[in-house]
Amino acid sequence: MMVDDALKAAAHINASRLLESVETLARFGAREDGGVDRPALSPIDIGARRFLIDRAAALGCTVRTDACANLFFRHPGLEDLPPVMTGSHVDTQPTGGKLDGSYGVLAGFECLAALNDAGIRTRRPLEVVAWTNEEGTRFQPGAMGSSAFVDPALIERYGRAQDSDGISLDSALAAHREAFPLLQTRVVDTTAHAFIELHIEQGPLLELANVPLGVVSGIQGVRWYAVRCRGIAAHAGTTPMHARHDAMTLAVAVRAEIETLAYQLGGDDTRITFGRWTVVPNSINTIASEVTFTIDFRHPDAVVLSAFDRQLADCVSRHAVTLAALFTHAPVDFAPAVIQRVADACEALGAPSRRITSGAFHDAMYLAKHCPSAMLFVPSRGGISHNPLEATDDDHLVLGARALAHCLVYLCNEAP
Amino acid sequence: MMVDDALKAAAHINASRLLESVETLARFGAREDGGVDRPALSPIDIGARRFLIDRAAALGCTVRTDACANLFFRHPGLEDLPPVMTGSHVDTQPTGGKLDGSYGVLAGFECLAALNDAGIRTRRPLEVVAWTNEEGTRFQPGAMGSSAFVDPALIERYGRAQDSDGISLDSALAAHREAFPLLQTRVVDTTAHAFIELHIEQGPLLELANVPLGVVSGIQGVRWYAVRCRGIAAHAGTTPMHARHDAMTLAVAVRAEIETLAYQLGGDDTRITFGRWTVVPNSINTIASEVTFTIDFRHPDAVVLSAFDRQLADCVSRHAVTLAALFTHAPVDFAPAVIQRVADACEALGAPSRRITSGAFHDAMYLAKHCPSAMLFVPSRGGISHNPLEATDDDHLVLGARALAHCLVYLCNEAP
Question: Which residues in B lie closer than 8 A to residue A360 (C-beta atoms)?
């Protein structure tokens, strides 16, 4: 029985083995403050990858890679059908924690081990993936591995990206091939049956709602802009207020107007942040001649994002300031059938869950273009993320892995 | 007749000689953009000083220096009376112009030359001074020379000040002594009869009023503060607005409140500037954890400045942000009798003038503690200052020197 196997797999999730694996992987790039600093394809990351490859081999999985050094760990299926995929990334922010990305990969590994322990064979293959350079810290942009998996043409451009030492992604990929010369290449000959990414929430909503599992229905769209306001530098003591052209006075007025229009358009789902400020000449006794600030606006509704674009253009035109678009991504709606499987898995385990929209980007944002996809979140204590203090209760980590196992086995076994 | 001599001296101001001297001095530290970069006591500044010393010697003046390398160029008087002093500084901002400071010194020199040309002997000596390090660019604080002249005890602390290369003022003063080993030391055995500083306005008021001369009645008081606002760094995409502690949101709210209270207290004379901003971590997609901004508040009324201090303390306490006092100076009221002499000189020349409060600091701020002092301003084109584009019409430069000559001779000859 499929459903029985799904429950059986969930029941074979070994809590201590899962939690130990988190601690073991965190040793690769461990920071003194308890966090992790593991740049993509660095020697530290290659050490972490060797650990994963060795463990997968011990679990009887085949291990393959691709042009962007993504790692695919496959548990064979009974039939020659497209795989069900799960996974995340193991690179971190410079001041990252132990869970962001790594938890999703290690929970996938724990599912592989649970299948073995329970003696379960699934109809479809189950493939755990570690995507390369999700954080975008060493090489820009982020999510290189997952986006290049979905659109292999991207790899040519990505290859020329350089890190802060001038090392290209191409060189880093060559070093990766040298480190693992025996790895076979995975050919993308078919789309996967489904992709599920398990991740920490990186926000406070599940904790505030006191709910241990989040069924992620999509990812917010985002707009990144830079607004440049020009003034005229002048002496703070000698220039009367009415004769000033203070770029900072202009910038805070424009910021306030943009904030208001963001709320008006977006309501409760609005996320608006003015995070980076550059002031020229940035002197106590000189009126600012130029202030540039960034906008990070996110919303799950594409109509709201477009309206924001239009009204922002009107706003900057009214104030005669300059607008530069830095980045844009449309909202992602995950596949209703896969969302439902995730929700069903939570229910089957008797675990409370709620629908949630992801505020952060994830590899699943790109996988959603390849195959039916969804995500599962566990709570982040205090909503803290990209920080050595990032943490999730052990019970939540284990419950997330159980729900993932249930969902993956169900998907692996469902009728084509 | 005293008044005749004052008019005669004014009439002997040689426009082309004055304007040429401005261009000649500007060659010491000339910038490619037409501005001047002449750090205090640098080899460039010592070159400029040598030019002044040679010119003063050619004019028959005695040249002396003191512990802070101020240079005193004295035209002897007929009687053994305290001198009338005039002058300013010849160090500049890194992106300075040709006039700030230098104009006041060179106009003083032109007065000395006019006395010679007209064959005028005054009752009191006339002393032109070049004060050391007014700008405070190479060594902090500014106005070292004039403040140490007034309070010689300051030189011990000033001596330890270091420039950005780690060179102490003491070392720079030693280099100055080596460059001019024959200069005698001026002893401050008596207070001067009066001090007048001629300077460019560095603001737009005279130009806006279309008046060529400003009779400066005092210098605004100033408060410099830094306000530090703390928040909590969090992900711009995952953190709902109601769960944020955005240091920038707090900072712009506190800034707005401070601006309002400054206007309420200070009325039209208010000068309030928030010029320097530091944002942590200053990242597009991270909510700011800390924002520090500076306040430069100036007003001619000490009561207003004190009220500002109190209400600012209440404001930061209400918002639980941190306040650090960086610098403070009380308003300076110049001596009514000297102000009147300056106004009389303008009237005697038939030149329109208006009373004005200085928004910038000047050496006269310190000299006012030593002897009856005042200042005379000429217009700054567009109010531009501390900028290679700094400029004043030739007619205004010449008129300012004529008014200075009239005023100095009148003061030199007035009854004890």
Answer: 235, 237-238
